[in-house]
Every structure is written in structure tokens, then in C-alpha cells.
Amino acid sequence: MDYLVEFDSLPWQSPTKGIRFKAVTHGSRRLRLVEYTSDIEPHWCEKGHIGYLLEGRFEIAFDGGSFKFNPGDGIFIPSGREHRHMGKALSGVAKVIFVEDSE
Fold first, then answer.
1. Which of 24, 25, 34, 43 is the most buried (most CB within 10 A)?
2. Residue 81: left if φ>0, alpha if ψ -120 to 50, beta else—which one?
3. Handedness of CA 46, 67, 34, 18 (dihedral sign)
4. Rounded average pLDDT over 75-89
5. Rounded distance, CA 76 to CA 51, Å?
6. If you average pLDDT over every residue of the chain, what do you get?
7. How many other CB atoms sit within 10 Å of the CB of residue 55?
8. Looking at the chain, which runs of residues are DSSP E strands?
């Protein structure tokens, strides 16, 4: 088991325009470093996230409104359709670290 995650040595993955990430998975948990850019394609997500905004400004829209996040803010979104959300970088780049269940 590795206790150190060297993000600099991990390759970037880009699932869609405006999002790229580096991830490491141990058992049922995944640690992801995610970069969002202002050209992110709008999409709804129903997965849960626990994270910390490292840099940039970020907005997350929910069915009932939206929240703006600044560096140093924590993010907690439970899983499920009732918590579906859509992220948007308000700065050129927003960088977040997430601890998630692997899927």
C-alpha cells in the first residue's frame, strides 16, 4: 500500500471538455485532483462528492439554486437524484480535491 500520492507523476484523464483529473484508488475510496475550466460542457451529475476547493472560483447549481465556492471552501454533496448538480468554473481554472467512493 502506498501512503503517498504523487499527483505530479499521474497522467491527466479528460472525460469531457472542460474537465480533467488525476486519480488514485485504494479499495472502495478514490482521491481525485480535478481541474475545471470555464469551457466545461453543462451536464448533470448524481454522484456524491466530498471535496476542498484549492484554487479558483467555482459554482455548483442544484435544482433549487446554486452555491459559489472560493479557495479554502469545503464541498459536501450527497449521492442521488435529489442532489443532482452541475458545476461551473467562474475563474479560468478551478482546482478541487475530492475523496469519493470508487465506482
1. 34
2. alpha
3. positive
4. 96
5. 7
6. 94
7. 14
8. 13-16, 19-26, 29-37, 49-55, 58-62, 65-69, 74-77, 85-89, 93-101
For residue 102, the tally of other CB atoms under 10 A from its CB is 13
pLDDT at 1: 57
pLDDT digits (tens, 9 = 90+) for 34-72: 999 999 989 999 999 999 999 999 999 999 899 999 999
Cell readout for 48 is 456524491
Q: Which residue type is seen at 62? A: F
- Provide the β-strand partners of residue 93: 37
Per DSSP bridges, beta strands 49-55 and 13-16 are unpaired
pTM: 0.90
The three cell numbers locating residue 71: 479557495
The predicted pLDDT at position 62 comes to 96
Cβ-count burial 70-87 (b if 16+ within 10 Å, e if not) = eeeeebebeeeeebebeb
